Amino acid sequence: MRRLACVSLILSVVAGSMAAESETPAATRASFTYPRAVVTGTVEGITEFLPVSSTGHMIISDRLMNVPDDPHIIVSDITDRKGRPITQERVADDYIVIIQVGAIAAVLVVFFGRVRGVIGGLLRGDRPALQLAMCLLLAFLPSAILGLFFKEAIGAYLFSVEVVAGALMIGGVVILGAEQLLPKVKFTEQEVAEIQPSQALVVGLCQCFALIPGTSRSLSTILGGRFAGLSNAAATEFSFLVGLLTLTAASVYKMWSLGPALTQVYPAGPAGLGLIIAAVTAFIAVKWMVGFVSRRGMGPFAWYRIALGAIILAVLITGQK
After folding, report:
1. What is the residue range of 87's domain?
2. Alpha carbon of 68 to those of 59, 60, 201, 298: distances in Å?
3. Which end of the chain lies in a sparser environment, N or C, as judged by fewer CB atoms within 10 Å?
4. What is the pLDDT of residue 135?
5. Alpha carbon of residue 33 to chain centroid
6. pLDDT tens digits for 260-300?
7. What is the arrangement of strands in the sheet containing 73-79, beginning at the earlier edge strand?
């Protein structure tokens, strides 16, 4: 697989057993064009908080744009904080995580009142704010811990278009089943503020499935909230708040781990444009999503996932003939 090949290559380079190709940082920066930033920012913003898998859509859009991701191309002598070389493949993958900052900004704006209330309550020591903060942490930790220990294996074996297609279709079937089997719960204004630790833990455990590309973090956490007894609207809002914590942690860690390579590889102009577009499109998607799911559930997303997954598999099978 791609990531496994990358790891093997790096080990070989360290051992001096083979010579890897290299290119200059300027050549890599040149691949970050403004059209690419527009497409990537739009795809990220629209799909990040919809139950359709932003990672899966980004993998697909990168393939359609022929974004270079060759693990054999090392970007000059640039390394991250741990001394690991930056490859074309990693550049493509890292940008997907970094551009999530735009989506984070959108959620902060939409749920500014809720976030401000939690932070203010924590500073005052208010019990409801402390409980909601604890619940958000409980929902965040399971996937964070699992991802930390298995990120290399996940990257090596699961980052492929085939896995994305399969996960899209399976997720669609799960949504249809949940829509039929889970009881309808009436939304109350205090439902998110009064969420219980046991409910948050269910959401956190379900979020672990989102480590599989194509599954969707939003889908996992919204269904987790529904399995825990929350209404569609409350499960969706709590999913966004958990996503705010999860995406912030992932983006900050990624940017910190890159160190000086962040500014040497990623051009400020296209990267900044991508973040702005992601923020605007994510804001629109988040504002629309809560009302839509409250009224119609997630059934329409299920059929979209199944159709998209089937199309991808059909294209793959046809291309192999």
Report:
1. 2-320
2. 12, 13, 39, 35
3. C
4. 95
5. 22
6. 777 777 788 888 898 899 999 999 998 898 788 878 888 89
7. 21-23, 73-79, 85-87
